[in-house]
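Methods: example folding runs. The two proteins below were folded one after another, and each record is reproduced exactly as written to the output file, sequence line first and structure-token line second.
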Amino acid sequence: MNLLDGTTIALAPLLPWAVLAPLFVVAVAVVLLAVFRRARGAWLRALAVLVLALALINPSLVHENREPIKDVAVVVLDTSPSQNIGDRKARAERELQNLTERLKAFDDLEVRVVRAGDGASGAAAINETHLFDALNRAMADVPRRRMAGAVLITDGQVHDIPENVAKLAEIGPIHTLLTGNRDEGDRRLAIVQAPTYGLVGKPVELTIRIDDMPGRQSQDAAVTLRQDGGAPRTIRVPVGRDFHMDFPVTHGGQNVLEMEVEAAKQELTLANNRTAVVVNGVRDRLRVLLVSGEPHAGERTWRNLLKADPSVDLVHFTILRPPEKQDGTPIRELSLIAFPIRELFEIKLDEFDLIIFDRYRRRGVLPQMYLENIAEYVQKGGALLEASGQGYSTPLSLFRTPLGQVMPAEPTGQTIDRPFKPTVTEVGRRHPVTSGLPGDNPNGDPTWGRWFHQVDVTPTNGSVVMNGADNRPLLILDRVGKGRVAQLASDQMWLWSRGFEGGGPQAELLRRLAHWLMKEPELEENDLRARVDGNKITVERRSLEPDPRSVTLTTPSDETRTLEMTDDKTGRAVATVIAAEPGIYRVSDGDRTALAVVGAVNPPELADVRSTGDKLAPVAKDTGGGIHWISDTEGGARPGIDIRRTRPDRPQTGDGWIGLRANGDFVVTGVSDVPLLPIGAVLALALGALLLAWRREGR
């Protein structure tokens, strides 16, 4: 029986109830019989029985020394990117300060403040607002009986509301304080459908959509398109329905299309007026033309490398017998069909992605006109690789043909015939084609095998990335017009493929060389790029010369910051930054620009940035909380929401105030037990009652 808080009456029977119960029944029956017969002294006997019964029950007064335990209230502050709109962030900080000041007045309340949605926990944090995850973490060590409730300071765009909202009632009332304004409007540009990959040279179809919220503000809107940082172009797109458009995939690697819709009359932010599509360009089939000037041991190295790649279509022919060689062998025994020289070097020349001349010398097989076509093919964007044999140092050299105008090195007429190990130059260690080749040793001799023949050349253009005997140029890379040329002043790379003296990285070198010639973005030697991993942006600048310049990062909300680059002496300078909001980040060093798209294609955080209480209304209903607009309480004598401590069975919210549940939890620090009936007094009273009853009955 509870008398007061901490004070109760407890029973401690002197005999087991199994013994007391029959005794009580017999005693009561005897007393009732005496009363029924109207015997003298019956009430005195009843008094004696009652006193003895109380004595046997042994009641005592138990008092608990209680120490109150503070209830816990959690305040979750939304710091997601949508809170940066307008004055929401400042309003939220002011309200947080008001709340903490008023909560200090309650001595029985512990307040925990957590910030959620600032991007510190990864990409999901900036794509979506997760307030309930933060709430669960804040109260993970708190028994639910101590929870007084929670207050969410947010714009209402929350994306992790539990499916079973009723279970939140055990936390207490969950109140929402909205940071935005009523009747907000906005326009957004969304990507409905976009492929991840596309074939180079062929367009892919995109579907975009412009939505005005809450209602359409115009029939159509201008959308500005910019591909890979190029010149902008504008199209008109209808508002409120899907729009299909073509996006040309112009090169391998990432093709980035930026899109920006013009602002509407009602706009909360322009961050969701911009979006970007990243399509990885892949080549359907790489067509390579290999021309071998004569049969030799290294010819199979080129063929094996190119045929090992199933995506490569190789056209290979070898000049077995030049026109001046007349040995009487019938033509039908040399070839089953006539080789289609005109078709390859005139009609279908532009269809090839790479042309390789291996040990070729002028012998009248290819007329000058076809060699002029190849030079023009390079100028227009083609790729040419020349592996020099003995013939390059003679008057029959390709340098003495129209191809000489695109070749990066001029023969001296000499050859070097002695053992040497190819070495990577200082420039080569910064060039992605030769940087970090397996076996290279910047502080000594490389570990790969030797070569024995080299054509002596003098570079006229391009970059020398490898040297040979006597530090003479061995591998030269050059850009000519829109195309690229590589010249290898030796025909003995096949020694590496045969494993001579341990071999060498011929497969890796030729793979990189071919991809650089075909303009793969990952092998650009002077480039600025940005990679995204979750919400981490890595900015990388490749350059053949050390470049100490910093870069400028522009965020989706048009804020700028400077990033210092760290050069690793291998041609790469790197900087990293954590993105705090989804969208398009632009990086520029003054000469080049790179784009980084952070977050999902259509991040929920930017899908609807209007402040609303609709999403959290079920939470408020099931937990007894309230939804209040902070703007409604501004400008008063005491701005902000009032806070009250309320009983669990009373309303938890009202006009301009919110309640936090007072649970009254405690811990017991001590207990005192005082008997209510002293044994001596009880026995004397029972004995006296019996004596009086005996005397009464004896008269």
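Second run, written to the same file directly after the first:
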Amino acid sequence: MTTQSTSDFVIEIGNCNSILNATITLQRAGLNIKYGANGIGKSTIAEALSLHADGSSNLDQLVPFKFRGVPGSPTPCVTGVDEIKKVLVFNEEYVSQFVFQREEVLKDSFEVFINTDEYKQGLAQIDALFDSLRATFSEQADLEAAVSAFSSLRDAFTLTRAGAIDKKSRGLKALGVAGKVANVPNSVKGYKHFIDSADPASWITWQSKGKAYLDISDNCPYCSRPDMDKVAAVEVSAIYESAAVKNLSALRQTINQLGDYFEESHREQLLSMLTSLSEITPEQSTFLAGLRSQVDTLLGKLTELRRLSYSTLRDAENVDEVLRDLKIDLPLLKALHSDKTASVVDPINDKLDEVAGRINELRAELGKQTSRVAAIIKVNQDAVNEFLRSAGYRYSVRIETTPDAYRMIVEHEDASGHLEAASSHLSYGEKNAFALILFMHHVRKVQPDLVVLDDPVSSFDKTKKYAIIHQLFHGKSSIRDFTTLMLTHDIEPVIDIVLNPTAGQFSMMKPTAHFLQNRAGLVTESLIGKHHISTFSQVCATNIGASSDDLIKCIYLRRLYEVNNDLGLEYDILSSLLHARDVAGTKGFDGVITPLTAEDFKAGMTEIHKSVPTLDYTRVVSEIKDPVVVKAKFDATDVGYEKVQLFRAAVNNNWANRGDEAFQKFVNETYHIENEYVMQLNPREFDAVPDYIVAECKSRLYSVVEPAPSEGSGC
């Protein structure tokens, strides 16, 4: 039974994948370990909680296959967690989406490691010094439109490396057709009203498409009249290229919009070029290149002034010089030296002078922020690298400054420079370990209502498991203050946190551990207390005393001898018994069975009888050989572990359907002593054998045809 507090979350999950119903509890602001075998639905629990937090309609993707497309079927649901609005899940998907990006070890590492409240407060103090400067931008009602127009003008005239106007630029092509638009040639004079319209490019495009039908009939393809001038219709698209005309319209609009921002003589020169019938002269090209350069300079200054902040000044050796260089010297920008431009530039320069007048205050705040950043970087680097060292990894991380922000990169002690594609160098275990520690920092940044760790440490050896658990849940930088659900098929975290003396280090997490069991889609949990964790020897001894069946007792007793490496006469007798040998023997190195002497058999049985007083070797051997008896014993026990061992005994005696080698190997290895922990839960209380394994064993047992009774033996 689970002991509940009134403050616990009591969660019910229904109709999600293989789970028809699951009831689990979560202790708030504590570590909740849910231990269970693979295949019982742990990942489904994690996914259901995450999807529910994102919106209950998202649960539809978890509809069990048997309900999909079936009208009136029950729908997935999660109840008891309405307070949980934000869930952060560590699983393989998290590792693939957020960790080991090509240029940084964690996606948005700046947000996780640098952009703390302290960092933001420092930025706010620096930004306050620029408030009046920024206000001048917002106070200039027409500035945004002017900047956009200047940008369009600059982009219309691209420059070559030599600084000349590129002949392929949009603006130059537009000017090439300008004179023909302003002065429509006589040959197409009939179309003047269309060419002079607000959108001549669209009309020219339409007209050009129509000329493809001129040869079909003598009638006009546009109006069907028979007296059209086909020569003039063809000449329109020959004279006017629609893209150039469209660019001309945009250029004309931009120049008209900028108007008074140009010095008068420059504006007049631009306007005259919009009506010139001649090709662009070298002098005009030089004029345009100079104009474009001045526009680019103005836009660059305005952009830098808007961006003025800690990030743009942090690496400056001389802040005074940076501010001085940002002033706009309008008289030197002759093409833009107008009253209209001055009305914009002068207030900006004045505010910049005010900032420069507080240069000592600015320097002080920049210095404080730089120190804050250095301290934040050191704390985060040291935290990650301390774990990597303690876990025996030869990697380290470094947070480096980039022009726009910061990023965390991975380095190896034997390589120069950082690893651009860290994931291709790290092993599966190394990636998981790295990712878990980065996830811990991500949690502290995001502050979720629930943290879910989906089988986080099962792939590590014991030393690394403990190092990771310790890092995650011990110390001020850990996630011990968060409501955390750890789903695992690995009992070692339970042993480390619940049983071992080191468990005291995790007391602040108020850890609880539960055993999860799935029976026919119904998931239940049982509290695991310190007293539930025993040595395998203790488990065997307890179950020998608790069982009423001599064969079951023998299964546990043989395991007890095996785990204690007591492989003498008693072990040989029990091994022979479970293989249903009529005469007990010992197996030599060559695999040959040598029968025990009567004296040795008696001595061994005397020792066995101390644990199983009623054992009759011949009787139990005959039981194992009888499918009816073994099946009855199989059905009589509710313990999955015992069912599997009975099945193995039947297979060893060659009458049960052992099936394919893969299943047999799985049963032998998964539930054999070599793969069982020294410390474990008693399988009679915490049955970890999945339903499908028990069902498969039963199916193979019952696929055997019962032997026909011999004559005179009765029913």
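Comment on the second run: Residues 533-702 form one domain.
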